[in-house]
Amino acid sequence: MEVGGEEFAVGVVISAKTTLGEEFEGQIVSFDRPSNLLVIQEGVGRAERGERRNVRVIKANYIQEFTVVGKYDDPLDPAACVLDLAAIHAREEAALRQAEVEAERIGVGVTPEAQRLFDALSKTLPVQWNKTDILVMKEVRVCSPYLPENVSGGTSAANERVKKVLDFERKRLNVRVPGQF
Questions:
Q1: Helix ranges, 18-155 (H)
Q2: End-to-end CA, the chain
Q3: Nearest residue to 113 via CA among 95, 132, 98
Q4: Helix and strand tally (H, E) in the chain?
Q5: Who's near 35: CB < 8 A, 6+ residues apart?
Q6: Which residues pair with 151 in a beta bridge?
Q7: How far apart are CA 111 and CA 121, in angstroms?
Q8: Closest to 27 measured CA to CA, from 3, 6, 53
Q9: Are 136 and 162 within 8 A, CB to CB?
Q10: Where are the alpha helices (DSSP H) in the chain?
Q11: pTM of the model
Q12: Burial class (CB in 10 A: 0-12, 13-18, 19+), 180
């Protein structure tokens, strides 16, 4: 877009006033002629101080007037972009670990009711899947069809605790026992 003979060029810092009367200053990051969209990064000096910047996408015809304040290097130059690769890799590793933890909580080859019981039990007790069995506190096993009678292993106190929680959660979730109507 040309206004007064001047072109919107990448890297140019402008001070602009919109048709709505809003005034701002920023560096042009991109200008798309077909859509007439202008991408402006405000707070150009903030990058050096490590502060966040604002990016504004605006239709060029909404700019009533502008003046060129200066010209800086290309804001999209990859050599000038500062990326903390260690922080990016750390975030990636944390996300992968979290995804693995969440994947372990999903039972393979179990019914939706079994998964709901597992999820409910996991809110109060440490649980994990062992094939299609629910292993509670690494010692008490709950086998299909996940009734209190199907609880085995562990100390008698742990066994009774799991039976009570399982019975309560079945009632709360209103899971029907096979053969019950």
A1: 85-104, 112-122
A2: 72
A3: 132
A4: 3, 11
A5: none
A6: 142
A7: 15
A8: 53
A9: yes
A10: 85-104, 112-122, 156-173
A11: 0.50
A12: exposed
Give the other-Cβ count within 10 Å of 153's Cβ.
16
3-state secondary structure of 53: coil
The secondary element (H helix, E strand) that includes residue 71 is: strand 63-71
Q: Which amino acid is at 168?
A: F
Triad 169, 158, 98: Cα angle to 5°: 65
User: Is beta strand 54-59 parallel, antiparallel or unpaired with respect to 63-71?
Assistant: unpaired
137-181, pLDDT tens digit by residue? 899 999 988 898 999 988 899 889 889 888 888 888 775 555 554
Joined together, the tokens standing for residue 174 give 């209103």
CA–CA distance from 86 to each of 49, 83, 93, 163 (Å)? 20, 9, 11, 47
More confident residue, 141 or 84: 141
Looking up tokens 């003046």, which residue turns up? 67
The predicted pLDDT at position 97 comes to 96
- Tokens at residue 92, please? 């990636």
**Are residues 4 and 64 in contact, defined by beta-carbon separation less than 8 angstroms?**
no
Residue 159 near residue 139 (C-beta atoms within 8 A): no
Radius of gyration of the chain (CA): 30
